[in-house]
Write a structure and sequence with these properties.
- The protein has helices spanning 25-36, 48-69, 74-86, 94-98, 112-125, 141-144, 179-191, 207-223, 229-240, 246-253, 255-268, 279-286, and strands at 17-21, 40-44, 88-91, 103-106, 131-134, 154-158, 168-173, 195-200.
- By secondary structure, it is of the alpha/beta class.
- The protein has 2 domains: 17-200, NAD(P)-binding Rossmann-like Domain (Rossmann fold), CATH 3.40.50.720; 209-294, N-(1-d-carboxylethyl)-l-norvaline Dehydrogenase, domain 2, CATH 1.10.1040.10.
- The chain has an 8-stranded mixed sheet.
- 38% of the residues are buried.
- It binds 1,4-dihydronicotinamide adenine dinucleotide.
- 1,4-dihydronicotinamide adenine dinucleotide binds at residues 21-27, 44-47, 50, 94, 107-110, 114, 118, 135-137, 158-161.
Amino acid sequence: IARNFSSSSAVQAAIKNVTVIGGGLMGSGIAQVSAQAGQNVILVDLSSDVLAKSQKSIGANLGRVAKKVYKDKPQEGEKFVSESMARIKTSTDPAEAAKSADLIVEAIVENMSVKHKLFTQLDGVAPNHTIFASNTSSLSINEICSVVKRKDRFGGLHFFNPVPVMRLLEVVRGAETSDATYKSMMEWGKAVGKTCITCKDTPGFVVNRLLVPYICEAVRLFERGDASARDIDTAMKLGAGYPMGPLELADYVGLDTNKFILDGWHKKYPDQPLFNPIPLLDKLVAEGKLGVKTGEGFYKYDKK
Ligand code: NAI
């Protein structure tokens, strides 16, 4: 009897067990959409306080989803919430949580050496078939995966904030991502309710490569005194049909995050003028004016 032992032609089973590492803003959203879609989830963070907070916010978010989806059937809504919540386990031990994973999505701090340390550890303990993915916004997938042996089973899964609301998922193919891994990532993305697009491992992928320079140009325009913040935002909303203006968006994303991404790209691509530092952005960040989260950026906000 002929048996096919070639791993490249083997059909990979669909992903059912996902371990999400990093229980912050993005990780908790990724855990939520996965559990909502019927996946078994382990959410991992260094801090059990973070995990407790994440579980609470996931519960509240699921409650809102249930109210909308099961408007006239509150009992079914409750069932949806409790069943989704029951699919999410939490852990402070990445190695243990890796053992049962078909897919590991990393959403920890945006720091290459911390990511390298984590993936080196995971590579030693995760099953052979487990796919590794990073949710990084600004680091290179090829560089992150340089420390693991399973380079063919590694890629980028880049979600958008807030994860349960934003419909896009960028699926990033690294230089060595295999076709089977790519296919599994695309299928999983669809299964958790996202519309997937594919991109090569390039700075900012598609969305941020276009959005960050756009926001930066708006900051430069404002810095030159060419128009007021309000008028720049009104212009892009009413003249280009954008739901938010670029400076409002910068405040929402966080001016520190914008600066962090810009500085990283500038260091890597010093000849690209679009990535040049912006004195006004540096000044606002130095003054602690980071946008909505600190109560002031380009605009002032009521602190929650
Ligand atoms: P966050 O600061 O809210 O959450 C990060 C979490 O990771 C923290 O709770 C921290 O305790 C935990 N952590 C740090 N090191 C860890 C380790 N070694 N093991 C386990 N847990 C660890 O950050 P956020 O915003 O959720 O970002 C996470 C990742 O997602 C970053 O790579 C970022 O670039 C990316 N991202 C962020 C977006 C955003 O809008 N904030 C959008 C898309 C991607």
